[in-house]
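Quiz preparation item.
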């Protein structure tokens, strides 16, 4: 089972396309819509978690690309607001991927965006609202 958390960017002419229906019916994928911002006849954005067999997921992503949707990893939208972070470390043990980690010997809490899997666990865990999803 493969899982991807993505942001699908719909240009105006594709907003009315039954994209999630096709992913489910044609590619046998599970599509969980996490957030949506779509206005008819304008550009739209869907934050989704798509899961299924790896080969089907890859085929589904090819379908989205051929359709003309811009697809980006949700992890690219995870952001730490440095000015709010006091490096308390509360997020470190909750982060499952090591994207938030204490560096030794300085003990600075660093955010490694390339390791982030966009699970969003750090967002409610941070008492200073330093972690955010840009959507
Ligand atoms: S929990 Fe928030 S304030 Fe504390 S280290 Fe993590 S991002 Fe910084
Ligand atoms: S979204 Fe998840 S993986 Fe990414 S930094 Fe936060 S807790 Fe870690």
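Solution:
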């Amino acid at each position: 089972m493969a899982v991807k958390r993505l942001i699908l960017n719909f240009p105006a002419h594709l907003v009315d396309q039954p994209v999630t229906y096709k992913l489910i019916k044609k590619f046998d994928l599970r599509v969980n819509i996490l957030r949506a911002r779509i206005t008819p006849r304008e550009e739209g954005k869907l934050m989704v978690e798509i899961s299924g067999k790896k080969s089907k997921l890859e085929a589904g992503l090819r379908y989205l690309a051929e359709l003309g949707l811009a697809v980006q990893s949700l992890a690219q939208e995870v952001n730490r607001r440095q000015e709010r972070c006091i490096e308390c470390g509360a997020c470190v043990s909750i982060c499952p991927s090591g994207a938030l980690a204490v560096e030794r010997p300085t003990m600075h809490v660093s955010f490694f965006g390339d390791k982030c899997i966009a699970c969003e666990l750090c967002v409610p865990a941070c008492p200073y609202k330093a972690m955010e999803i840009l959507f």
